[in-house]
Specification:
By secondary structure, this protein is α+β, with helices and mostly antiparallel strands. Helix content is about 50%, strand content about 15%. The protein is globular, with a radius of gyration of 18 Å.
Length: about 180
């Protein structure tokens, strides 16, 4: 857990970052313009990826070794974690690559998924020859097939929730006032 003073705006645990991911997904779902959708997708990718950093910080030595293959403080923890847990956290590598790309413009660490890209567009709904609705839409493209990023991030959130519960890292939250 973080100690005071910190630089996390009061976020204290991987559970707090998970809740931020849920917030980012909600912003993505409700985004009415292209920029709002792009910014929310950007944030969701970063949050979905960086929950891992918080998890690694919170793990005890034995759990860290079991989940990463290396001891705490040693190089290779992120790559080891992703490799060992890709079955349970299948969306993590997508989030990591998107987050790394948006931070550095290009992927600077780890293998590159050359068959994956992201984008955004405006979707139009038609009734006859008239446009009845237009909305912004962000997508991930894998092997020339487009998928809504909302599906990716929602799946990632569900995977993280299950992981945090199984590993005993979930922190119960007080009811919102």
């Amino acid at each position: 857990m973080a100690t005071s003073p910190d630089k996390t705006f009061g976020l204290r645990s991987s559970t707090d970052l998970y809740l931020k991911l849920i917030h980012d997904i909600d912003r993505l779902r409700s985004g009415v313009g292209t920029k709002a959708v792009q910014y929310a997708a950007f944030d969701a990718a970063i949050t979905g990826s960086h929950i891992l950093d918080w998890v690694l910080h919170e793990l005890d030595e034995a759990s860290h070794l079991r989940l990463t293959g290396v001891g705490k403080g040693m190089k290779g923890a992120v790559a080891g974690f992703i490799q060992r847990n890709c079955g349970m956290l299948g969306g993590l590598e997508f989030c990591r690559q998107i987050a790394n790309s948006v931070k550095h413009v290009t992927i600077t660490m780890g293998p590159v998924m050359t068959n994956m890209s992201t984008g955004s567009t405006v979707k139009l709904e038609w009734q006859g020859d008239r446009i009845t609705n237009a909305y912004a839409h962000a997508f991930i493209k894998i092997d020339d097939q487009k998928y809504s990023v909302i599906e990716l991030f929602q799946s990632m959130a569900e995977q993280w929730f299950l992981f945090l519960e199984i590993e005993g890292l979930w922190v119960e939250q007080p009811p919102e006032e």
